[in-house]
Specification:
Blueprint (H helix, E strand, L loop, with lengths): L2 H8 L5 E5 L5 E4 L5 E5 L2 E4 H17 L7 H24 L6 H14 L4 H10 L4 H23 L6 H9 L1 H7 L2 E10 L6 H19 L4 H8 L10 E6 L5 H7 L11 E3 L2 E11 L5 E12 L7 H16 L4 H8 L11 E5 L6 H9 L9 E3 L2 E14 L1 H32 L2 E3 L2
Helix pairs in contact: 2-3, 3-6, 4-6, 6-15, 7-8, 7-15
Length: 432
């Protein structure tokens, strides 16, 4: 018997008026934990629907949004619960598990995004009428659903080299891929009617400032002390701008600078400009750390429990420590179809491309060493770090960024199509 069915069997709560429909007709659920929908092998309970309705009403009230009529809102929320149930069932069948450590890190991240400590965040939840435990379980459900969506939808998206080339050649693509520059600016103003002596004095002052900056002087302090520009009190910081957004008077010089380099003084109608490239970011300047790594992945399934899978990973690790060949064990045991036949070889990879748990272990494992078995959303891994290097990936980074942009555009379209498909294929019985 499922957890929900067991809870239904032992719980019965008094009549709860869920909503009052237009026209004075009362609509109620006679038992709060009655079944309101059967969804394949799962059920949706009235208590879930009521809880979600209350939460959405609070959010709409806080955002000063007028909610739709109650019957429309209830129908939308029930449909959302049905779709969530289908995805959670898929996650359960696929063995998707969110461990407590991952869940806690995620909740802490949400608290930080709200500029709160974890204790403050728990207090804010309590004020909104939600327990910390309920919130954690809600986040756990959302993480499972997110992983199921990525797994199912990513496999439906294919981006060809021709599409990447076309994107990079398009105006939108060039704008999206272009580097960004954070520029420091000092202006020594020269009046239109300035005497030759005043102009010469300003020119000499600009040269002196330039030489001091080349010698290591702090740009921010120099800007505050000398600049007549509108950003002087901010240390002359113009913020992040793409090349096309830089002032034309010094844009050409800026794009040729290295980070930390200062351009010689530039004369314009308003005076002398001194610019320093504080930082540069984007796909055009990508020297990255790479790791050459092999891994073996084993997954829990309907016929192998979580503990059995962990025990298998530990056994494989022990055999590797004892000297058995990594490639042979990967071909025999790894359940990563993309690398198993290649002996687990992932090649030279950017650590940031992996899920956070994998990246953390990869960064903590020294060259030539094996990791201990560890868990990610995909299953249990053992990895071998074979080498580390720095690689100029500017061109590849541009193409990878193009792929990410194209992928994100298509993901939402494919997600909605996939959700419609699983809804159409499911057995759903509405009992409201």
């Amino acid at each position: 018997m499922s957890t929900k069915a067991l809870r239904l069997a032992i719980t019965s709560i008094a009549i709860v008026a869920l909503a009052a429909l237009p026209g004075g007709r009362a609509w109620a659920i006679t038992e709060l934990d009655a079944i309101v929908a059967v969804v394949d092998d799962d059920i949706v309970l009235a208590s879930e629907l009521v809880s979600r309705l209350q939460s959405v009403r609070v959010q709409m009230e806080a955002a000063k949004v007028t909610p739709p009529p109650d019957n429309v809102l209830v129908s939308q929320l029930l449909e959302r619960l049905i779709i969530e149930s289908l995805q959670l069932q898929m996650g359960e069948r696929a063995g998707v598990r969110i461990d407590d450590e991952t869940l806690t890190r995620t909740v802490e991240g949400i608290a930080r995004q709200n500029n709160m400590t974890l204790d403050q965040f728990q207090g804010a939840l309590a004020q909104d009428g939600m327990s910390y435990r309920e919130f954690r379980e809600q986040v756990r459900r959302e993480l499972v659903i997110s992983r199921v969506q990525r797994s199912r939808v990513n496999s439906r998206i294919y981006i060809s080299d021709q599409e990447i080339d076309a994107f990079l050649a398009s105006p939108f693509g060039r704008q999206s891929i272009s580097d960004e520059f954070r520029v420091g600016h000092i202006l020594l103003a020269v009046a239109d009617d300035a005497t030759p002596e005043a102009v010469a004095a300003a020119e000499q002052a600009a040269k002196d400032i330039y030489e001091e900056l080349k010698g290591g002087a702090d740009f921010r302090q120099m800007a505050i002390s000398h600049s007549a520009g509108s950003n002087a009190l901010e240390g002359g910081d113009l913020g992040w701008r793409k090349a096309g957004e830089l002032p034309s008077v010094f844009a050409e010089q800026v794009v040729q600078l290295e980070a930390g380099e200062t351009a010689p003084p530039i004369r314009s109608g308003s005076g002398y400009h001194i610019v320093q490239l504080l930082e540069r970011r984007g796909a055009g300047t990508q020297v990255i750390d790479q790791v050459q790594v092999k891994h073996i992945l084993v997954k829990p399934s309907e016929i192998r429990t979580e503990e059995e899978t962990r025990a298998l990973a530990e056994d494989i690790h022990g055999r590797l420590v004892a000297g058995e060949d990594f490639g042979a064990l990967a071909r025999a045991y790894s359940e990563d179809p993309g690398t198993a036949l290649a002996g687990g070889e992932l090649g030279w990879s950017d650590p940031a491309q992996f899920v956070p748990e994998f990246t953390a272990v990869l960064n903590a494992t020294s060259e030539g060493e094996l990791s201990e078995p560890f868990r990610t959303e995909f299953g249990w891994h053992v990895l071998l770090v074979e080498g580390r290097r720095q690689q100029d990936m500017s061109e590849e980074a541009r193409r990878n960024l193009a792929v990410r942009i194209l992928h994100s555009r298509r993901f939402e379209e494919q997600l909605q199509e996939w959700l419609r498909e699983i809804r159409d294929e499911a057995f759903v019985e509405i009992r409201l």
